[in-house]
Write a structure and sequence with these properties.
The chain has 247 residues and is α/β, with parallel strands linked by helices. The protein contains six helices and twelve strands. It has two domains: 67 residues, Hypothetical PUA domain-like, domain 1 (Ribosomal Protein L25, Chain P); 166 residues, Alpha/beta knot (3-Layer(aba) Sandwich). Strands 6, 7, 8, 9, 10, 11 and 12 form a seven-stranded parallel sheet that branches. The longest helix has 22 residues. It is elongated.
C-alpha cells in the first residue's frame, strides 16, 4: 500500500479528511477509488492503515482502521552536520540522508560555503528541506520525521553541544588528516554519532582544528577525495553498517 504523510493526529475508528497533497496524489496520480486502502503516518512512529470512504472532487475522507508500530528506525542516532552547498546538492544530501536513517540534520555555514542566504530566506529553506525529508520518509518507509535544524555556523553549533559522553562518538571527514582513522579502527558501539561534512572547497585548517578541539575524531574514508554531496552518503552508510542496522 502507498504511504502518505498526514499533518495532524490520527485516531483509530475516526473518519478524517486527508491533507491536500495526499488527496490530490491519490485522486489524480493513483486514480484511487472508494474502499481502497493506504498507509498514513504523522511522525509519531506509527503507521496507520486507512480505507477511503469518500472522494468528492479533490477531497478525500478515510477511516482509520489500524495503528501499527513502525520498526524501520535505526537504533543509531546520526546527527549530520552538513556544510551548506548549492540548492540541488543540499536537497539531494537531505533526501538520501533521510533514506539512510539519519535522525537529525544541521546545515552549517563555513568559510568556504558558496551559498549565502539572507535571514528571510533561511526559514523558507528549512521548510523546503523539511518537505524533502517528509517525502523521503514516505518513500523509504520511515514514520519518524528527521529534524532539520536552523542554518548555523561551526562556532555556534559546537558551542551549543553538551560535553561528549561514553555513549557518543564524534567524527569529521578530513581527507588530509595526518592522524586520520579508518572506519576499520572504530569499534565502540555508540548510541549517537555526530558527523561533520565540509563544503565544496573543504574545511580550512582553522576549522578542522576547532572541530577537533571539541572531541571530533578525524576520519579518512579512503584514498579518493569525495564531493561534498557524496561524502555524507558514503559516511552515513558506513556508520550504519558498523554501528546501525545495515547488514
Amino acid at each position: 500500500m502507498r504511504r502518505f504523510y498526514h499533518s495532524t493526529t490520527l485516531t483509530l475508528n475516526e473518519i478524517i479528511k486527508l491533507d491536500v497533497f495526499a488527496a490530490r496524489h491519490l485522486v489524480q496520480v493513483l486514480r484511487a477509488k472508494v474502499a481502497e486502502k493506504a498507509i498514513l503516518f504523522n511522525g509519531d512512529g506509527y503507521d496507520y492503515e486507512v480505507q477511503i470512504q469518500s472522494i468528492i472532487k479533490h477531497d478525500v475522507s478515510v477511516l482509520v482502521l489500524a495503528k501499527n508500530k513502525n520498526i524501520n528506525e535505526s537504533s543509531l542516532c546520526i546527527h549530520l552536520y552538513q556544510a551548506l552547498s548549492t540548492n540541488d546538492k543540499m536537497d539531494w544530501v537531505i533526501q538520501k540522508a533521510v533514506e539512510l536513517g539519519v535522525q537529525k540534520i544541521t546545515p552549517v555555514l563555513t568559510q568556504r560555503s558558496q551559498v549565502k542566504l539572507k535571514h528571510e530566506k533561511k526559514d523558507k529553506k528549512i521548510h523546503h528541506w523539511q518537505q524533502i525529508a517528509i517525502a523521503a520518509c514516505e518513500q523509504s518507509g520511515r514514520s519518524v520525521i528527521p529534524q532539520i535544524y536552523s542554518i548555523t555556523t561551526i562556532e555556534h553549533c559546537l558551542q551549543e553541544m553538551s560535553p561528549i559522553d561514553k555513549h557518543e562518538r564524534r567524527f569529521v571527514l578530513n581527507p588530509y588528516g595526518k592522524q586520520g582513522l579508518t572506519f576499520e579502527g572504530v569499534n565502540q558501539n555508540p548510541g549517537e554519532v555526530k558527523l561533520f561534512i565540509g563544503p565544496e572547497g573543504g574545511f580550512t585548517e582553522d576549522e578542522i582544528s576547532f572541530i577537533q578541539s571539541q572531541a571530533f575524531e578525524s576520519l579518512v574514508l579512503g584514498p579518493r577525495i569525495l564531493r561534498t554531496e557524496t561524502a555524507p552518503i558514503a559516511g552515513v552508510a558506513i556508520l550504519q553498517y558498523i554501528f546501525g542496522d545495515f547488514v
